[in-house]
Amino acid sequence: MRGQAVTPGTRHQAPGTQRPTPGTQGPLPSSVPSPLLAVRGLTKSFGGVQAVRDVSFVLERGEIVALIGPNGAGKSTCFNMLNGQLGPDVGRVYLDGVDVTGHTPREIWKRGVGRTFQVAATYGSMTVCENVQIALLSRGRALFDLWGRAGERYRDEALQLLRRVGMADQAERPCSLLAYGDVKRVELAMGLANAPKLLLMDEPTAGMAPGERNALMALTAELARESNLGVLFTEHSMDVVFTYAHHVLVLSRGEIIARGSPAQVRDNPQVQAVYLGTGATFRAHAALA
Ligand code: ADP
Ligand code: MG
Fold first, then answer.
1. DSSP tag of 5
2. What percent of the chain has pLDDT over 70?
3. Closest Cα partner for 272 from 288, 256, 258?
4. Under a CB-based contact definition with an 8 Å cutoff, are residues 271 and 91 in contact?
5. pLDDT tens track for 152-177
6. pTM of the prediction?
């Protein structure tokens, strides 16, 4: 079914009016716009453990969606199936209506799916600017061993990305000297190197202080607005989730048990039960709301 155009948006439809499952019913009329990301029935087992079961959702351009759930719920497995690192046992992933299930991470990246790099992916001895240049070089398929000759390549573009994340003034510092929150902003700039239309962020704020978490997500939200970027992120702080997500998907034991606006999810007793004892608090944001 690769390359076939489909229109899998179903979230806003009433029960019983769902469109045919993409990949099984052939293409739908091309006059109906496809969502940026449509996920249908994703399922993945590791040995006897069903890590993800029948996960379906859509994400539109400019939309920020949080995928939440306790540790082991299957969030990272979902992300890895979306970015091509893992193939699903069952289910399909559509980007702009094109079936990209089973495509390699690089193919998916080239189709405009950015991901934030983990700390280990930045080269501490290189400068902030050089790290972003590496990410840009990788987009152009230039090899890392060309770096010596390519040291000036993409410098202007890298500086432009660093300006967007507020890091241009630290462009010449080695990454190893940066504060942790600043490393995260560099990672975000690197995630933007392929001018993505969808950004996947698996625990982007892990290890950050609460103030820094908010600052990084506020920046992400601003970038999403400016560039009409779709964002899917996981996050443990409920305050951050409820402040920045437009929609929330709740995973428990591999299945989506609740979905909706932050307020709907916050008030859902099943969601509160799943989080009971994990230390997550739903009250702080309720007080703000
Ligand atoms: P989360 O990101 O929500 O914490 P994961 O997607 O990492 O959850 O894990 C979901 C379940 O799948 C867990 O039970 C985990 O132990 C299992 N799992 C994840 N990756 C693997 C793997 N590569 N091999 C075996 N089991 C795995
Ligand atoms: Mg995880």
1. B
2. 79
3. 258
4. no
5. 778 999 999 999 999 999 999 999 99
6. 0.84
**C-alpha separations of 261 from 184, 240, 246 in Å:** 27, 14, 6
- Note the ligand closest to the C-alpha atom of 67: 1
- pLDDT band (50, 70, 90) for residue 116: confident
How many Å is the Cα radius of gyration of the chain? 19
Gap between the Cα atoms of 239 and 251, Å rounded: 18
Residue nearest to atom 16 of ligand 1 (CA): 72
Which tokens in the block code for residue 7? 């229109």
Q: What is the edge-to-edge ordering of all strands in the sheet holding 64-68?
A: 113-115, 198-201, 230-233, 64-68, 247-252, 255-260
Interatomic CA distance for residues 191 and 193, integer angstroms: 6
Which residue has the least CA distance to atom 7 on ligand 1? 76
Query: Which of residues 12 and 221 earns the better pLDDT score?
Result: 221
Atom of ligand 1 nearest to the CA of 73: 3
* Residue 5 near residue 97 (C-beta atoms within 8 A): yes
C-alpha 31 – ligand 2 centre gap (Å): 37
Return d(Cα 182, Cα 34) in angstroms, integer: 36
- In this prediction, residues 3-21 reach a mean pLDDT of 39
Pick the closest to residue 189 from 171, 211, 213, 208 (CA basis). 171
Domain ranges of the chain: 122-190
